Amino acid sequence: MTAPTYRVPRSLSDALMVLHDLGAAATVLAGGQDIVPLMNQGRLVPSHLVDISRLIELHGITEHGVITIGALTTHADLARHGIIRTRLPLLVDAVRQMGGGLQVRNRGTIGGALCAANPAYDLPACLLALDAVLILAGAAAMRRVPASAFFLGAGRTARRAGELLTAIEVPPPPAGATAAYVKLKFMEGGYTIAGAACVLVMAADGTCREARLAVSGVSGAPQRVPAAEAALAGIRVTGDALSAFAAQVEMAITDPIEDVMAPGDYRREMAGVVARRAAARAAGG
Fold this sequence. Notes:
Elements: E1 5-7, H1 12-22, E2 26-29, H2 35-40, E3 48-51, E4 61-64, E5 66-70, H3 75-80, H4 82-87, H5 89-96, H6 101-107, H7 110-116, H8 123-129, E6 133-137, E7 142-146, H9 147-150, E8 151-153, E9 156-157, E10 164-170, E11 177-184, E12 194-202, E13 208-216, E14 223-224, H10 226-232, H11 239-252, H12 264-282
Parallel strand pairs: 1-3, 2-3
Antiparallel strand pairs: 4-5, 5-10, 6-7, 6-10, 8-9, 11-12, 12-13, 13-14
């Protein structure tokens, strides 16, 4: 087996030129929590590794109208940052439930997790529920891709050859917004069987003005569930309302994952269960 070439660009412009020249032959290395295990298992044999870990332009979290998260922000830094803890606690909730322990949180990056497009990962569903936009840069142009259009299936995204995910933009949650992330896994470090990220915007009279829900772990890509969102909008979040909400989630899962972890019918049912729990938690129940 031939060893891959190893490039370490020192600036974003240099990285984009390298990726432009290599095209689809390039494998981008950030925190290495996905790529390195695959290489060790022989499931990934890259010809060209492009290590972007030293690109300081892709680090940091700022708020200027929107909250911008650099793609190289680690999960641990995400959960510790004051802006995220105050403005986007849903992401903190998800990071705290990640498997893999401190190593994954300290080394894994938000950009790497999104580009891996693993159905079991937690942050993609949260960013769907938060109406996030992903910033993709190429040598010639930059694109803004809504999270709803980025995830195409297991291991597949809208990122093109030669492009680099540089940042994630999240609009500030509206007044009255609350959120929760709930997942089912069978063991610490195990993959998600079903996960749900729920954002509720509550009115002063106690009714739900707006609901957003995204589920993960049950299909090849995370998905929003508009029918379930509509089931809560404009009403109080009661037990009956949550039952109707969960039923809509189950009906929306038409292509559940079947694997050694769980059969598809079980994942579908559990998607309704975790969605109900997430909505109840977000509503304060």
